[in-house]
Amino acid sequence: MSEAPRQPENPRNGEADAVDAITAQWYAVRPDLETAPMAVFGRIYRITKSMGDAMEATYGRFGISRGEFDVVATLRRSGAPYTLSPRQLSATLMLTTGGMTGRLDKLEKAGLLCRRPDPHDRRGLQVTITDRGLALVDEAVTAGLEVQRAALTGLSDEEVAVLTGLLRKLLAGL
Considering the entire predicted model, what is its pTM? Predict the structure, then answer.
């Protein structure tokens, strides 16, 4: 026989957040519900939205969107010669080829990457980051990491390691 759902946990530091209020409201009207998953994913969604907005603003200072950053960053971290096919980029970024084409068009127009015929496949293309794109992504990734680091200042190094492990485990289960 399963255990009855329990009242949502009170925060240890005494500082309730909006998710605590939501789970408490659900408990008040539906005490039969186990709202722990709502508490976890409600916070993940709110963190994702907040950090997504912060990263968009950070990359915007460099004249690119977060999605465009993802393209040039993928090329950068692929290593020299910083070249991938549009198909490889689409697979890595989980984008349709149509979505990728729009990003590549904008980034090529901005001089951050170039597309050339693939010398090994006359039907294919290769996308290469330009020197300008390389310099921009190196600055943007540093700025983005500073924003992310600042968001973690309330956690100790050990807490960051535990959180990373728990999130990795959660993601693997999905």
Answer: 0.84
- Domains observed in the chain: 37-61+141-173 (no CATH), 66-138 (1.10.10.10)
Mapped onto helix, strand or coil, the DSSP state of residue 11 is coil
Going by C-beta distance under 8 Å and a sequence separation of 6 or more, which residues neighbour residue 128? 75, 81, 82, 83, 113, 114, 115, 116
Q: Compute the average pLDDT of residues 26-42.
A: 95
Report the mean per-residue pLDDT for the chain. 92
- Report the alpha-carbon distance of residue 124 to residue 110 in Å, rounded: 22
Coil vs helix vs strand at 81: coil
Three-state SS string over 95-159 comes to CCHHHHHHHHHHHHHCCCEEEEEECCEEEEEEEEECHHHHHHHHHHHHHHHHHHHHHCCCCCHHH
Unique residue bearing structure tokens 């959180």:
163
Do residues 76 and 137 lie in contact, with contact meaning Cβ atoms separated by under 8 Å? yes
What is d(CA 105, CA 115) in angstroms, rounded to the nearest whole number? 9
CA gap 85, 49 in Å, rounded = 30
With 0-12 / 13-18 / 19 or more C-beta atoms within 10 angstroms meaning exposed / middle / buried, residue 3 is: exposed
